[in-house]
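go over whats below:
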Amino acid sequence: MNWDDTADDDTAERLVGASADHEEQAVEAALRPKDLGEFIGQEKVREQLDLVLRAARARGATADHVLLSGAPGLGKTTLSMIIAAEMEAPIRITSGPAIQHAGDLAAILSSLQEGEVLFLDEIHRMSRPAEEMLYMAMEDFRVDVIVGKGPGATAIPLELPPFTLVGATTRAGLLPPPLRDRFGFTAHMEFYEPAELERVIHRSANLLDVEIDPAGAAEIAGRSRGTPRIANRLLRRVRDYAQVKADGFVTREIAGAALAVYEVDSRGLDRLDRGVLEALIKLFGGGPVGLSTLAVAVGEERETVEEVAEPFLVREGLLARTPRGRVATPAAWAHFGLTPPRPSTGGNGQQDLFGA
């Protein structure tokens, strides 16, 4: 039952988008687990984090700084709140894009209480001056505040109470090594297996007073793209359909009919995903085709295709990126009930992928 707060303008309206808007975050808050025992999935991360927190409590010390990485919707924000709850400490929530100046960060740090948890979402998007100030704050619990300008500028050291920074990022590779190395515990969040998502759905259904049978939960889980946030979103839409079109009880048939209305197919693909694959297959014979050309064919911006649709399609083995462009894989052809063309043989005797 786990997801994050990061919103993205391109994906906020997608039913299978992993980001959440502000209205949805309020709904999610009621479904969030409150402790590690309630948290479903991420077994290794939970076990390791439990040891870190128990040891800190036994010492009567503040927990080490924690870095959580992984795709949106997997539970980074939820874990940060659980860390605060387990340590019986307040939590302050902000994000990298909101901290564009060192002064912004100094104002937040100087107001922290001892032992407080500071959750910094999308930490890789923080400005460089603020990032450099954070180094000293994490390591020495001190920041230098610059007063004045030019030759008369003075650095005033400001002592900070011990605190725990929980950083979350969807792109851990963008974090500079000096920042990454200052975290005492790092964890990577993995996508969920269908069985884990079924447990998430049953738990959420119980909290939402939705009657659902195991087959109905399995149908929703299979279309949730390995992401708890998406599973909960699909559950709410299926609930609406069941209340209006049926007796409110969610079965496999009801779940399938509801998600067909919302254009989420059996593999979790939505209109944009299918549009990309259909353009590749029907207009370009499976590819290869350049990203810009593909974006024009589906009527979307290049960035939308590359950052919103492609990650899932590549992860599912439906689309491949090659030096010559995007290619639909045999699995993509099979998904539409089509047979891929026979690979041609180039003049050099090497077989080209789909005629590339």
